[in-house]
Design goal:
The chain has 141 residues and is an all-alpha fold. The protein is built from five helices and no strands. The protein is globular and about 50 Å long.
Length: 141
């Protein structure tokens, strides 16, 4: 039997990760569209842009996985960690819009993906270290 509140929390977490992916996409597109006075593209390389697009896709896949988990069953015992990740993802969404360095975008997106994967795995030993790392990175930014 599934817990409707747990399902709602998983859906909210998936919504947060999707919002982060949306923010990452907007930030990346803004960087790609920005041109210098001589008409050249800004200092974002094709390799970095491709990496950011791949991380956006991974965030969306992780969110979709959580939506599926919510539809199928609740992941018991991780409610507090799911709430913490949702809160961190909401903070990350705001930070993504302000980040100027591609490396910081890549790092933050990677840590969001890792934390989402840890929650989705249902293995508590993976969740806390991942959340702590994400929290410290967000605080540093």
């Amino acid at each position: 039997m599934t817990d409707p509140q747990q399902q709602a929390r998983l859906e909210a977490l998936a919504d947060s990760l999707s919002a982060c992916a949306d923010a990452l996409h907007l930030r990346l597109m803004r960087a790609l569209r920005k041109s210098t006075p001589d008409g050249a593209l800004p200092g974002i390389s094709q390799r970095v842009a491709q990496s950011l697009f791949e991380q956006e896709v991974q965030l969306r896949q992780r969110a979709n996985s959580l939506y599926l988990d919510a539809a199928m069953q609740a992941a018991g015992g991780l409610q507090a960690q799911q709430q913490q990740l949702a809160e961190l993802a909401a903070r990350a969404e705001l930070i993504i819009a302000r980040i100027d360095r591609a490396k910081d975008l890549l790092d933050l997106a990677g840590e969001l993906i890792g934390a989402g994967a840890a929650i989705a795995s249902g293995r508590p030993e993976r969740v806390l270290p991942s959340l702590e790392k994400l929290k410290h990175h967000i605080e540093a930014l």
